[in-house]
Amino acid sequence: MRFALMMLAVLGSASTFSYAQESRYYELPKGEYPHDVAAGPNGEVWYSGQSRGIAGRLNPASGEIERIPLGKNSAPHGVIVGPDGAPWFTDGGQNAIVRVDPASKQVKLWSLPRARTSHADLNTAAFDGKGRIWFTGQGGIYGRLDPKTGDMHVWDAPKGPGPRHHPHPGRRHLVRITGRQLSCQRRSGERRSDRS
Fold it and tell me: Is the pLDDT of residue 194 over 50?
């Protein structure tokens, strides 16, 4: 009886927190191929227009879509909003980390070191607590950029090229996703694998 009353209380409280979800769809030009999206601090939605080499900005309230060219040969993959409120892109076409100033629309690039640009295939990024951006490439690399100084380091990924790697700077791990396996490398160089 006590268990039944506890379950009724939990179910009753859960129903008060449930609400209807609303979805809106926004039409993009044919062939734009948005890859990743990130919500900005003012409610705008940024996306990487991979095939057109653009940063897309959607205003959900008005439906207006703005396209900002990122440069020659651009092919942005990942987009995140940094602690500065700006969108940051991993751009495999330019082999660079790209920042767009939301107000001026100025584009700034930090290119990978020349020795690391062959087949880097930049993918995913994350900021750490020191304002540095960590990034990965499916070509078997991971790296760190300090935007304040421009200092960039690029290392070989634990198991080389292949599936996606995700930087987790707060936990000092690089996680590689491969089918049914997660492989973690600690910054000290120690590796640990967990299979599902």
Answer: no
